[in-house]
Design a protein that fits this description.
By secondary structure, this protein is mainly α. The chain contains 6 helices and no strands. It has one domain.
Length: about 160
């Protein structure tokens, strides 16, 4: 007698697709450059919830992950030109043409605002970002695609 297992529901398949696509590998040996961040070309075409702003919130998490990558990598861009390193990375991050782009760049914009208007708060922001691990970033991203608030808010109280 064979046991029949129901096939995975569309929502569980979508969840698994997102779990796989949202892989953060910052600081993982053998993984360099932007390969340490999730590849937006592998993202599913839909979110788990149909709520306004979900893509933007995911983009903010991806922006925070990019900031962490900048912090851990310094200014040396493996395989790239030795000038304007972060500019090169920002240009590459902005070229995916996805709904997440505005959110990702919003996180970078907030850092620029802090640097211009309250630079004394940057060390606290850097500590908050540095304390996040790949598992934290994955959890934050998964919460974002479910329409949940992003916790922790690394910018809280800094503006």
């Amino acid at each position: 007698m064979s046991i029949l297992y129901p096939s995975a529901s569309p929502s569980s398949t979508l969840l698994m697709s997102w779990q796989e696509a949202l892989r953060f590998r910052i600081g993982v040996e053998g993984v360099t450059g932007l390969d340490q961040l999730p590849d937006s070309t592998s993202f599913p075409d839909e979110f788990l919830v149909d709520e306004f702003g979900t893509g933007h919130f995911l983009g903010e998490v991806l922006g925070i992950a990019a900031l962490k990558l900048f912090l851990t990598s310094g200014t040396a861009f493996p395989g790239g030109a030795p000038f304007d390193t972060i500019g090169q990375w920002l240009a590459a991050l902005a070229c995916s043409d996805r709904t997440t782009d505005a959110g990702r760049l919003h996180a970078v914009h907030r850092v620029i605002d802090l640097a211009l208007y309250v630079p004394q708060r940057l060390p606290l922001l850097n500590c908050r970002i540095a304390s996040l691990g790949n598992a934290d970033l994955h959890r934050m991203a998964m919460d974002a695609i479910r329409g949940r608030p992003i916790v922790p808010d690394v910018f809280e109280g800094l503006d």
